[in-house]
């Protein structure tokens, strides 16, 4: 296994929207050399490879026939091909970061995880929102979520059309919620429907956990305006995360909260009803302390790939493991089962 100073040859399989970004970041990463780009479309493979001084191939057989010995690989092909491509690499001893969702089904994910475990090969899954500055800042808080609400909305992009919105978008928030709430998942309720594609384009899910925590998740890929927000309520504070705007704040009860609250109620009781709309917003905010969280500027995908490279070099546990990804996929399948049982 390469040491800290060894140059790692990186291969990107799939030169679509995400794969091109993987290639860009590997090509600029210290200690890593983008050696090859693989894509079934030779023009697309050559375009991305030539931009970064790498070689272009149309399949893995061609790559390995040319004597390539990758130190690691990113798999950014359509979800339906994740199992086949990632397995082929892992069986040759190549550490793999496979884009989310890990595979098309939980059964495939288990098979891929088993292969990686048996071969002793690093397998990380690309749940990139784990590396978002807002979530990384939030993790410094002692989070004990009681209620989580998320909205992940996007205009239709014509990408990832091989899966529905649950595996395309909602799985990001499923992974985050399962990362924040460590209790077992007790019940899933969901509804959704197809609008532009044969699969669900809009879905809403309610997750209940054994410790009483609840999460409501909404995902849409047919919205006019994008939104990537999550709100986390705990006993002591309220956390708001905006993944799109890279902004987060926490609201806590202000010092002397009980006394202030009593004063506010006295003020409200003495205020004519017609003036309540004027004073209520200010009166409420005075009860809280608002702290804007300090966020770094690191690109989430950059942080994710750096984490993967570190796991490969140290032979450590990847930050987003196959077990993490399988939990998210298991929850996604439970959501999909509900959507199919109660379609719009």
Question: Can you tell me about this structure?
Answer:
The model has no long low-confidence stretch (mean pLDDT 93). Helices cover 38% and strands 24% of the residues. 42% of the residues are buried. It is of the alpha/beta class and 344 residues long. Helix 4 runs parallel beside helix 5 (106-119) and helix 7 crosses helix 11 (322-341). The strands form two sheets. The chain has an eight-stranded mixed β-sheet with strand order 8-9-10-7-11-12-13-14. A six-stranded parallel β-sheet has the order 3-2-1-4-5-6, with helices on both faces. The protein folds into three domains: 8-130 and 301-329, NAD(P)-binding Rossmann-like Domain (Rossmann fold, 3-Layer(aba) Sandwich); 132-235, 2-Layer Sandwich (Dihydrodipicolinate Reductase, domain 2); 247-294, no CATH class. It contains eleven helices and 14 strands. The radius of gyration is 23 Å and the shape is elongated.
CATH superfamily of the largest domain: NAD(P)-binding Rossmann-like Domain
End-to-end span in angstroms?
52 Å
Taking pLDDT < 50 over at least 5 consecutive residues as the criterion, the unreliable ranges are: none
Count of helical regions: 11
What general outline do the C-alpha atoms trace?
Answer: elongated
Gist of the model:
This protein is an alpha/beta fold and about 350 residues long. It is about 40% helix and about 25% strand.
How is this fold's topology laid out?
Layout: E1 8-13, H1 17-28, E2 32-38, H2 42-51, E3 55-57, H3 60-65, E4 72-75, H4 82-90, E5 96-99, H5 106-119, E6 123-126, H6 133-138, E7 147-153, H7 165-180, E8 185-193, E9 202-209, E10 214-220, E11 227-233, E12 237-242, E13 247-253, H8 257-269, H9 276-285, E14 288-292, H10 300-314, H11 322-341
Parallel strand pairs: 1-2, 1-4, 2-3, 4-5, 5-6, 7-10
Antiparallel strand pairs: 7-11, 8-9, 9-10, 11-12, 12-13, 13-14
Helix pairs in contact: 4-5, 5-11, 7-11
């Amino acid at each position: 296994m390469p040491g800290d100073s060894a140059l790692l040859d990186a291969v990107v399989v799939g030169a679509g929207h995400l794969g091109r970004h993987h290639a860009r970041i590997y090509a600029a990463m210290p200690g890593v050399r983008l050696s090859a780009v693989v894509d079934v479309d030779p023009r697309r493979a050559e375009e991305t490879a030539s931009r970064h001084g790498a070689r272009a191939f149309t399949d893995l057989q061609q790559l390995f026939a040319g004597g390539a010995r990758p130190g690691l690989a990113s798999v950014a092909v359509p979800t339906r091909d994740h199992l086949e491509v990632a397995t082929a690499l892992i069986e040759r001893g190549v550490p793999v970061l496979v884009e989310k969702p890990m595979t098309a089904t939980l059964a495939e994910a288990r098979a891929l995880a088993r292969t990686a475990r048996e071969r002793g090969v690093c397998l990380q899954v690309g749940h990139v929102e784990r590396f978002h500055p807002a979530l990384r800042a939030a993790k410094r808080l002692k989070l004990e979520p009681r209620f989580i609400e998320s909205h992940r909305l996007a205009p239709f992009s014509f990408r990832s059309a091989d899966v529905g919105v649950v595996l395309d978008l909602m799985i990001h928030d499923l992974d985050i919620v399962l990362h924040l709430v460590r209790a077992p998942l007790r019940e899933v309720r969901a509804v959704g429907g197809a609008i532009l594609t044969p699969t669900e384009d809009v879905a809403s899910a309610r997750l209940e956990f054994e410790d009483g925590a609840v999460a409501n998740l909404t995902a849409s890929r047919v919205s006019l305006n994008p939104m990537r927000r999550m709100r986390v309520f705990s006993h002591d504070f309220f956390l708001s995360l905006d993944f799109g705007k890279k902004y987060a704040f926490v609201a806590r009860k202000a010092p002397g909260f009980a006394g202030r609250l009593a004063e506010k109620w006295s003020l409200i009781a003495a205020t004519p009803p017609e003036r309540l709309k004027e004073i209520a917003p200010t009166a409420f905010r005075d009860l809280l302390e608002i702290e804007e969280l300090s966020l770094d500027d690191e690109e989430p995908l950059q942080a994710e790939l750096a984490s993967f490279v570190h796991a490969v070099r140290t032979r450590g546990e990847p930050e987003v493991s196959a077990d993490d990804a399988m939990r998210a996929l298991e929850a996604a399948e439970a959501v999909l089962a509900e959507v199919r049982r109660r379609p719009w």
